[in-house]
Each structure stands twice: as C-alpha cells, then as structure tokens.
Amino acid sequence: QRRQLLHPESYSAMLAPAVLAPGKKDDSPCRDAPTSYGLGWFLTDFCGNPVATHGGTIAGFSASLFWATRRPLSAVALANGKSGPDRIGVAEKMGAKVLRGALTCDR
Predict the structure, then answer these.
(1) 100 near 71, Cβ under 8 Å?
(2) Cα separations in angstroms, 103 against 47, 68, 94, 98, 99
(3) For burial by CB atoms within 10 Å, which of 13, 46, 55, 89 has the most?
(4) How far is CA 30 from the centre of its chain?
C-alpha cells in the first residue's frame, strides 16, 4: 500500500491497540465485535481483515470511515439521519455494510 502521508512509525502507533495497564490491552466489545482503541481509531476485524474505523453523529447527521488496513480498501459514508436513540448513525451501518460486502463477509 502507498502510505505517504505519515511516517511508517506513525501508522504503526496509530494502529496499535492501547495498553491500559502493563500488559493489558483495551479489548472492549463494540457493536458485538471485539474492539480495541488506537490513537483515534477503533480497531476491529471484519472476516479476518483488520479494520480501523471512526465516526460520529450529531443533530441528525452521521459520518463514518472504515479502513481495511492491510488492503487498499476503505469505505466512507455520510448521512442525514441516525437510526435511533442509541446514537448509532445511519452512516456507520452503511459504511460497515459496504466494506463487509467488498471483503465478501456475511457479517
């Protein structure tokens, strides 16, 4: 992959799971999947592919970015709406579905 924006060490740090205490990684479930956090990214896995994701919702709008970190594949979704009071944005659902489809996941 062509990663030219940052130094290689920055990508490594950004995609490394946070360590909360000596030897203990942050492995919290998020959206029913094991997830870690690494310098601004939620780190998870879609059908065997490491994925970094980040997004948010505010006042009826949502945005989400999904990046398959070992493949030249990303999905970005923007939406005018969210799917309910749990603050899961429509964009998050759309972006995850697109990336899973591109990775041929059934998840």
Answers:
(1) no
(2) 8, 9, 14, 9, 6
(3) 89
(4) 10
pTM: 0.77
Q: What mean pLDDT do residues 52-62 have? A: 82
CA 71, 80, 65 angle in degrees (round to 5)? 15
Q: Please give the angle made by the CA atoms of 52, 48 and 68, to the nearest 5 degrees.
A: 30
Per-residue CA distances from 40 to 16, 52, 55, 56 (Å):
11, 9, 10, 12
Mean pLDDT of the chain: 80
Q: Identify the pLDDT of residue 52.
A: 93
Residue 40 has pLDDT above 70, yes or no: yes
